[in-house]
Structures are given as structure tokens and as C-alpha cells.
Amino acid sequence: MGRTTLRWLLALGLLGCLSAQAASPVWAVRGTHNVVYLAGSIHMLPANDAELPPGFARAYAESSKLVMELDLARFDPMEALAWMTDHGTLPAGTTLRGVLGEPRYGRVSAAAASLGMPMTGLDSLAPWVVGIEITDLAYEHEGFDPEQGVEEQLVRRAQADGKPTAGLETLSEELGSLSSLSSADQVRMLDQTVDDLKDLKSEMREVTGAWRTGDAKRLAGLLASEYSAFPSLYKPLVTDRNRRWMPQVEELLKSQDNVLVVVGALHLVGEGGLLELLRGKGYTMTQLN
Fold this sequence. Notes:
Layout lengths: L1 H5 L19 E5 L4 E7 L3 E2 L7 H8 L4 E3 L8 H11 L8 H5 L1 H13 L12 H15 L2 E2 L4 H12 L3 E3 L3 H9 L3 H14 L3 H13 L3 H14 L1 H22 L6 E6 L9 H7 L4 E3 L2
Parallel strand pairs: 2-7, 4-6, 4-7
Antiparallel strand pairs: 1-2, 1-8, 3-5
Helix pairs in contact: 6-9, 11-12
């Protein structure tokens, strides 16, 4: 959904070369008796550039369990559709045109039309859902495939290997961060989605280049600039969720077995990121090559 939402939820990318000396977006955090590997994810990748950085292979091989934001091995599309219908549909008698006003509705319609999306399927949806729909289709037009995202690749491997999986949150917890946004913030988010579609490819190249080389400083800088521009969006979507996940990550650090935890790359870095929160509690970590 534009530059802001692209960098937090779908987070992410295109191209980017990986040299032999480059770091991976994977950190090994030392627990009492084990290691928790924290890996930054890109939730959608192009089929022609979907190979994961080398650190993922080591972390997966040395872990007995895969933990993600959502447990995709148990994801139920019908449950997700029902939730979206209940929470992402405008009240009866309300239309997207009425919520947005004619000039803004015209801009959204034009953006949807440029992607081959008819407005008839969007007119009953809340602005935050429309933003997701437009962004998803824009990614598809640029060659991104959710089936090639980091989690999808890893969960397929875990299922083939019989490795257990788990999630840090439920679908309602994850999407509730969006549905609870004020009407004004939802409209603002949709505005940015439309404004930034033209820059999608260059924005994603920048983010994925930083991700592929494990450039935590660059990723943190990208997040900080967006956070300062739209704190009412980023706080519930990034930092609040990080704090909600922390007790679960700490429990994993008390176990006997190594675990691979995969979350969106921007959840790891910067102020309020999981790496900073864990350092603040005295944990030591090493970034994998």
C-alpha cells in the first residue's frame, strides 16, 4: 500500500546482488541452552529472484521448529475471507465513493483501472482493504509472487521435512491492527498507496537490496523515515506488535532446542525492533554471513 505499507506489511522487494562477503538478514540470539535464529522476511518475491540469502539455510537446518508471524501451515483461506468480510466491509448503506468523496474516488478508480481492477468489487470495502487489494495487484504486475515469499518457501520445506511450525499471533491480531485504524488514517493510507504506485519498483529495489545484504542500518533508516511520517500507522503495525511478540520470543530462548523465528524484516531493526528489545534485556546475538 504505497511506500509506507509496502515497507511494513508486505515489506518488500526486487533484485539486489549478494556477494560472498555479504551478511544475511538472520541473527543468532543466544539463549540459556539454545539458539533462536531471528530472520527478516520479504513476504513476496519475484519468481526469477526468489533464492534466499545463505543464512536462512543454516538457521533452518540447525532449528527444530519454524515460527512465523502467522502459522502458514495452518492458514485457512476461508477463515481469512470470513474475517475480512466481517471487519473489512463498509456498513450497510455506505459506499467507498461516499467515504472518499468524488475527487479522491476518481483517483482511486484510475489507479485500479490501470491495474485492470474493476471498482465494482471494491465499492463496499473499507479503505484499508482497498489499499491492500491495489497493492497486491500492483506487486503481481511487477512479477512478485506470494508463493515465493520467504515464509511460503520455508513452510513448504518444513511440511516436507515434518518439522513443526507455530505462529506468534492470530489472523485477527495481525489484521486487527489495520481494521482498528481511524477512518482518517485509512483514507490517508489509501492516498499514499495511489501516490506511490509509480515508484513501487524503485522502492522495492532499495528495500530488497538492503535485505539481501543484511544491511540493518539501511533498513532501520528506511523504517525511521516512514515511522516519523505516519506514526499512527507504524506504531500499531510495527512496534506494538514487536512488544506483543517479545514474551513468546523470550520463552523460546528458555527452551532446549534451537528455533527459527521469521518475521517481516522491518520488525527486527531500528528503535523498538526485536533486536533492540532483546539487547536491552541482555541477550547477545551474531549476524550470520
